[in-house]
Amino acid sequence: MSNTSEFFMPPEWAKHSATLLIWPSNRDTWPGERLARVEKVYLNIIDALHGYEPVLLLVDPGTGTENVRRKIDSAGIDLSKVTLMELPVNDVWARDCGPIVVQKGDGDFLLTDWEYNAWGGKYPPFDSDNRIPAAISEAYSIDSIKPGMVLEGGSIETNGKGTLLTTQSVLLNPNRNPELGKKEIEERLMNYLGVEQIIWLKEGLAGDDTDGHIDDLSRFLNGNTILTMVEENPNDVNYSALQKNLEILRSARNPKGDPFHIVSLPLPKTQIEGTTVDGSEFVPASYANFYIANGAVLVPVYDERYDDEALELFREFFPDRDVIGIECADLVWGQGSIHCITQQLYGIDLGS
Length: 352
What we know:
By secondary structure, this protein is an alpha/beta fold. It has one domain (7-345): L-arginine/glycine Amidinotransferase, Chain A (5-stranded Propeller). 27% of the residues lie in helices and 20% in strands. The chain has twelve helices and 17 strands. The strands form five sheets. A four-stranded mixed sheet has the order 1-5-6-7, with helices on both faces. The chain has a four-stranded mixed sheet with strand order 4-3-2-17. It has a three-stranded mixed sheet with strand order 8-9-10. Strand 12 (225-230), helix 9 and strand 13 form a beta-alpha-beta unit. The mean pLDDT is 96.
C-alpha cells in the first residue's frame, strides 16, 4: 500500500455531502434533567447546520424516531434537510465512532472503519457505536475498509496538505493499541489517511476523558494556520500542558520545511460546580472544538470573557462562511462539544 497516493483524507473545510449526528439518549451520560438540556443544544446545532448542508441523524430505537421527529419539527427545523436513521447506538460521539471518509486516487470516496473502544474501554457497552461505520456503508452503498486499529476521529486533525496533528497521550496510550508501537501507528495513519508527516503534541485538558483529544487543543484554520488553546494563569491545571504544546507547534515545520502560522485563544473556564458523571470537577471546554460546515463555522461558546474574541477570530479566518456561536455548557458537561458530536461525510447522497 502506498503512503502517498492511494487514499486522501480531505480537510474539514472541503465540501461535505452531509454531517453525521447521533441524537442523545444515554442516561448515564445525561442523567435526570441533563438529557432535556442537551436535547435543546442539539436542536440549536441542527437548526444552525441544516441550512448549509444535509444532516444524517442516528436515533436509537429505544428513543423513538417519531418522538425525535416531532421535537425537530417543533423547533421549526426543515425536516426535508434532516434524515433520521434508526440504529442501535450507545452514545452521541459521532466524531469518534463514526466513519472517517477518505478519497481514493480515482476520485471515489471510501469509508475507513477503525475500531472504537470508548477511549480505552472506559464506558461499556460500545459495540453498537463500533458498528456505525459498517451500518452507514451498507445503508448508502459506499465501500469501506478496516485498518485494524483503534482510532477516534477526535484524536486526529489534518490540513489536506500532508500534515496530521495528534497527541501522545491518546494514540500511544496502551488502552488503545497495546500491540502497536509508534512507528506502526504512524504507518497506518499515513497509509489510510494519506498524510506525509505527523506532529505529536503531548497531553490534553484536565477533565477530558478521551485522554487528550487534539480537537480540544489545536486545529487547522487553513492549510498553514493552526489555532491552539492557551492558558495565561500559571497556576491553572491546564497551563503546563498547553504551553508545552504551543512550543512544539512553534518549532514544527511543514513537509516543505516552512513554519506554520500559529494563532491562539484563551481557554474558557473549565472548572465546574460539583462534578461530572465520572467524578471530574473539570470539563474540556475549548473553542478548538468548532465544526466547519459547508457555509458556516459552528463555534461553541461558554465564557463571556472570551466568547467575542473567539468568534471574531473565526470571522477573520472564515470570511466566506457564517460564524455561528452556540452555547455549549450543557453539552460539554457530558465531556465533549460540537466537534465531538459531528462527523463530516463525503460521497453519500441522503436523497430528498
